[in-house]
Design a protein that fits this description.
Largest sheet: 2 strands, parallel
Strand content: 5-15%
Number of strands: 4
Number of helices: 7
Oligomer: single chain
Order of helices and strands: EHEHHHHEEHH
Low-confidence stretches: 69-108
Mean pLDDT: 76
Strand order of the largest sheet: 1-2
Structural class: alpha+beta
Amino acid sequence: RIRIGVVDQINFGEDELCSKPPNGSCEENPTQALCLYKDQIDFLTLDAALSVGPVFARHIVDRLYRGCFTGQKMNFMDAEAHCESNSMRLCTVAELKSDACCFQGCNFDRWIFQGEEISIGLRGFSYGYDYYTPERAAMYHFYGRKEIPMFWENTQKYKGSGYLGMNRLNSIIHMQPKSEMNHTWIRTDEIKYGLGQVRDINLFFETFGIHVETQTVEAHLCTFVGKPMQKKFIPYLRPNEMGIDYDKLNYRFVDPKKKKKK
């Protein structure tokens, strides 16, 4: 079964609650998704003025975890998202849980919007996890809304948080630019929420064309992700089918257009 955790950040008195069924009450219309699956959805409603970015919201939603495997949770969800189990095998995208592996719960990563994916990805990779997505999407992030609160309108209330948060994020995953190496960052629980010992993150950098020293990446990686990547990587699937054996995979992504120029 899939469980959904929702952190509903709203302006009280102005916004509708995500927990409110959109088409009348459950007594009036019990076939709505929020009614049919109410036992599988956990809601936590917060004042939007307390928002300090999506990573912090997802840290809070992680606290709703109660012993089951979960997929990537979003702090906004379509109220009519139909969550079907249908024997779907859900290997978690970002938030596999264990005592040693709470990648998302880095609660000082405040004011982070760009950067959380590489942070979660590298920490999970270093613990030996590979990432998968369901064959069919069970939920999605609706970007079509207009005139809604973001989180950066609260900048003046949390001056300096974004700077400290980004320094912490980059330092923990060893991607801090040289110019920022000696700058202040919050080291609380850096080991607990840091890198694992199963895989060296330099292997990740080398495999996917990330050059930390120059702060550059190999372009056009998206042309490789998908069938070309599967063709290269699947032959190195572990015998137990639990992820790729990166010790045997000797692949280094290079911008294909750079190759053509040569």
